[in-house]
Amino acid sequence: MNVVVLVGRMVADPELKYTPSGVAVCQLRIAVDRRFKSESGERESDFFDIVAWRQRAEYAANYLVKGQMIAVQGSLQSRSWVQQDGQKRWKTEVVADQLQGRAKPQGARQDEAPPPGAEYAPAEVPTGSADADMDYDPFAEE
């Protein structure tokens, strides 16, 4: 079973892009506090890359902001690619099935709320030729 559940704070605003076939994909990065403090008494955080596709990507781009607490449920995925210089790169990230914005950070814009149930709508399952989009990396360095 491959299930990941994280609650953390957005490190930066979401970055929305589209694949060549027009599918929305959004990159997020969150900081999740560890449950225990370090020996020096400070709380440490781990940073996780999150990728959201289709409706989840557009929700993230429209309603999530840097500093905001969010909840993410998804699956862990590793992928690799070869850069133009021939160097092979690896990345492990969480592919979001559900995203939910928690309280907005202080000073954040108070836009209208998302439509009812938007944060819980199931992610669209890719079929047919859309599967090729899952291998496309719009965030890879060019």
Task: Describe the fold and architecture.
The protein is mainly beta. It is 7% helix and 45% strand. It has 1 helix and 6 strands. The protein has a 5-stranded mixed barrel with strand order 1-3-4-6-5. Strand 3 and strand 4 form a beta hairpin. The radius of gyration is 16 Å and the shape is globular. The N and C termini lie far apart (34 Å).
Which blocks of ≥5 consecutive residues have pLDDT under 50? Answer: 114-132
Helix share, percent: under 10%
Cα Rg = 16 Å
What composes the largest sheet? Answer: 5 strands, mixed, barrel
Mean pLDDT: 80
Please tell me what the overall shape is.
globular
Strand order of the largest sheet: 1-3-4-6-5
Per DSSP E runs of 2 or more residues, the count of β-strands stands at 6
The end-to-end distance, rounded to whole angstroms, is 34 Å
Can you count the helices? 1
N-to-C SSE string, H for helix and E for strand: EEEEHEE
**Percentage of residues in strands:** over 45%
Secondary structure category? mainly beta
Summarize the structure.
This protein is mostly beta strands and about 140 residues long. It has one helix at about 55-65; strands spanning about 5-10, 15-20, 25-35, 45-55, 70-80, 90-100. The chain is built from 1 helix and 6 strands; from the N terminus they run ββββαββ.
Give the SSE map.
Blueprint (H helix, E strand, L loop, with lengths): L3 E7 L4 E4 L5 E14 L5 E11 H10 L5 E14 L5 E14 L41
Parallel strand pairs: 4-6
Antiparallel strand pairs: 1-3, 1-5, 2-3, 3-4, 5-6
